[in-house]
Each structure stands twice: as structure tokens, then as C-alpha cells.
Amino acid sequence: MSKQWWKESVVYQIYPRSFNDSNGDGIGDLNGITEKLDYLKGLGVDVIWLSPVYDSPNDDNGYDIRDYQAIMDEFGTMEDWERMLSEVHSRGMRLIMDLVVNHSSDEHRWFAESRKSKDNPYRDYYIWRPGKADGSEPNNWESAFSGSAWQYDEQTEEYFLHIFSKKQPDLNWENPVVREEVYSMIRWWLDKGVDGFRMDVINFISKVDGLPDAEPQEGKKYASGSKYFANGPRIHEFLHEMNQKAMKEYGAMTVAEMPSVTPELAQKYTDEDREEVDMVFQFEHVDLDSGPGGKWDLRPLKLRDLKENLTKWQKALEHKGWNSLYMNNHDQPRMVSRFGNDGEYRVKSAKMLATMLHMMKGTPYIYQGEEIGMTNVRFDSIEEYEDIETLNMYREKREAGVPHEDIMKAIYVKGRDNARTPVQWNTTENAGFSTGIPWLKVNPNYKEINAEAAVADPNSVYHYYRRLIELRHNNEIVVYGGYDLIQPEDETFFAYERRYEGESLLVICNFTGENAIFHVPDGYKNKAGQLFISNMEQDQSLSFGNELHFTPYEARVYRVK
Ligand code: TEU
Ligand code: CA
Question: What range(s) does the Glycosyl hydrolase family 13 catalytic domain occupy (predicted)?
């Protein structure tokens, strides 16, 4: 297992639209990011992952790219971007950009050409098919954003594939010219000084030949085709080619977003000898609270399932490959609301969750606002929501007769706008995010949850994250130590140990709002423990007896020699 800078780093994700607005138009922007780099440096993060800032019509808030080598007007100019990059680098931090090449915007010049005629030179940049004999779509795949994954185009009387929105046509990676276009664009950004990429749904780029129908799903017109487009037949070939033709020579860090990836596949994708990607974002742990009907089909999370799943990933990549560690991003609800308690135990449970995640083996990812314990939001009317995934689902379910209240319940728990309300900087109007009208309403709890208060309070979630990051920077056991789960069946504690060069860390997290007794494992009894970190005041050292008494959402980590 080689030592790498990206294994020792902590990454901070910025969703630029909601981060900080510097010019009062209600939309976050690049200069707004530059204004906050000292705040991020103070937190101690090493790498910034910037969600897309490229020219886009914003059908999917920038994940629909119209020009891969131009900056979205609303976010600023290329000069603003270059200034931000140099300010990031001058603070000793790195920047990775979002690479969205499974699909482009339908307003990209390539697609504008492709749809003109069947013999246009750009036709095969995208995936076009005639309809079935009865005129219906080429297959029964559903779009991730509701409805069919195919859109009929009058001009050439064929359908084009779009796994996501109608304005996000899938690029045809079987076409070597498309691949070369992508690799030269990647090199163009790496030549500008970018340090790597987060690769959007990159395991969707190889589709199964023939694009066969998916197994029909009970009572649904369309069905998930992910069996035929996720982890497809040429995916390893394409990722290795991208590594060889673009990433490798720059030493670029790559984190691949891979819905449907398994630990076994991730071992292959992240095996350093295969030269594909450095790490993946897996989705199994953020699907544990979804029923058979998908993310909107709410199911209570069982702690045992979370322990089992995260442990499966820790063990699968313990000696080969590498894990990413996340419980939050711009697509997921806020972790303290989802996995902790965003009421009376908000601060304590946010720290407990951070302890559980940041003491694991892998590269941790902090999503903007997570470090101050921002929570989910509840807007009363659907008109206050912005996310295309939410709005399309709402319309589809209302047309099917599902009551408004039932749909809103699912949106409150799982909607992506939960993570996209503006970052709460201080107690001034709009939480200091903008002097204009924010593109998405600010969460009304900004008066008590904001960065200014957090930085000023030594006991805040912010300073706890800062300490966790410091511990990772100063203790190789956190980065390179082995991992083993303790008491798998326990429904109250998430406890595990890390081992490295004769030392161990004992990590104990009470996931409940109750007082609880932790039964000390035999191997630790009568041993001396030094407190490594806790979200409560503790004795700095102890000799382990038979049990430890925990208060609600209490977390403790002990170093044992
Ligand atoms: O997300 C991929 C993806 O699978 C998401 O659709 C996610 O599973 C879903 O939103 C959970 O609710 C990436 C980007 O992160 C997302 O923002 C984009 O909408 C999507 O790809 C298309 O680019
Ligand atoms: Ca702005």
C-alpha cells in the first residue's frame, strides 16, 4: 500500500451556487469562494472539490455542460477562476474539478450538430436509435429524473438517450473521437494547474451492446436500466485509457462517482497496479434507508446495517485500493438530520458522526456546511424547491394521484435541496450569503447555525472537525492503520479499532439518544488508554475496566499502546 498525498488529505466540497455570493445577484460565485479561502484554511482541509462551474443552462445546476472550457457567466470569468486557483495554491491547498462526461448539455455545440442530420460528422458523439416498430422508445429504460430515458427528436425522427434530464444527452464513449475530445479537455484543465477530478457517474460511460430492455418493474412503464449501463463491458478499458492519456503524467487525483459499484468492483477500479482511478464514491450506505421503490420509498435505517456496510467497504479496500469517506454531498440530505439528531442533540450528534467517519481508513469528504452542523430544510410549497429531480418526481407522483403531503414527506427526508440551501455565514440578512435574493431560500435556522458563531465557539462542530483533521495529519495510524469492527450485533454503539505499528485506536460512538453502557472487549481490559478525542469532557487517561458509561450521542476515541 503506497503512501500518497491524496490518501493523507481531507477534501472539502463546494457547491458554488450555494456557497457565497460576492456580487449580490443571489447566486454564489468564484469571487465569493476566494473570499472564504482563509475560513477553509483555518478548518485545515487540504483539497477543495469544486462542483461544476462550466458554462451551462443550469437544467441540472451545472451538471449539464454547454462548454467544457468556459466559465458559467453567473459564476464569473476565467480570470476569476484563475485568481481563485492561485489563491488556493498559495495557501498550500489543492483544487479538483468536477468532470461530467457521461453526458453534456443538449445546448453543447456537439449536440447541436449531432441532431442536425443522421450523416452529420457529430452524429455519433451521442446515442441515437430509431423507435421500436410501434413507434415507442428504443427500450424501456427510465430516466433518473423520471419518465423515459429516451427523447424523440423530430428533426431526424430518432430518439436520443439521456439517463438524466432531457437536456443531458449521453455521450457515446464507443466513439474514439469522443474519448479523444474528452482527454484533450482534461489535459487543458490540468495544464491550467488543476490537481485532479471528481468524475461524475463515470461508471455509466460503457453501455451494454444492443441497449436491451430492462426487467419490467411491477406497475411501472419504465424500469431501471442500470444493469446495462453501470459498470459496463468496456469501463475498465476506458478508465485505464483516460489514466494513460491524461491523468497519469500529471499525477492527478481522481475520485470516481459510481452509483451501483460494489466492493469487489471497487477493488479493481482502485487497484493502483491497474492505473484506473484512485478512489470511488460508493452509494450502498446512502441507500440503506431506501425501500424497494428507491430513494423516495422511505425505510428506517438500522445501525447494524450501517456498521455492516461501512465495515464491508473498509475490509474490501483495507490492503488494496482506497476508500472515500462521506455521508454528505450536494445530492444527499444533511447527515446530522439523516443519521444523527438535528434537534436537542444537533451539535453532539454531528460531532459523533464526524468521529465515526473521520477515524476510518480512507479519504474523508466534508460537504459545505457539514462542518457547522447545517440541517435539512422544510419548505411548505413545492414552488420553493428548485431541484429537477425533486420537481420531476413531484409532478409524476401528483399525476399518479399521490397526495401532496405524502410526497412532501419524502422530499423533506431525501430531497437534494436539503443540501443546497445557502451556506449560513452569520446572522445578517440571508445568513450573510448574499445581499440579493438567494436563488434558493436560506434555512431559517441560520440565526443559531452559522460559521461566524462556530468559529468563535471553541466547542463548536467547526473546531471539532478542525481537531479531527489535525489528528489525521499528525497520526499515521488514522490514515494507514488496519480496521476491525467491534460488537457487530450491537444496536447502540458503532465501535471499531484501528491498528498500526503496535498501537491501536479504540473508537466508540453511541448512535442513540439514550445513556448506554459500553462493554469493554476482553483484549482491552486492564490496559491503559490515552484519550485521543471525544465530544465530551473526559479524563485524559484511564485503565480499562469492564464497562464504560456513555451519555447520548457521546463519542470517544482512545489510543492504546
Ligand atoms: O449524481 C449521480 C446520481 O446518481 C444522482 O442522481 C444521485 O444518485 C441522486 O441524485 C440521488 O438522489 C451525479 C451528480 O452528483 C448529480 O448532481 C447529477 O444530477 C447527476 O450525476 C447527473 O449529472
Ligand atoms: Ca453572485
Answer: 13-420
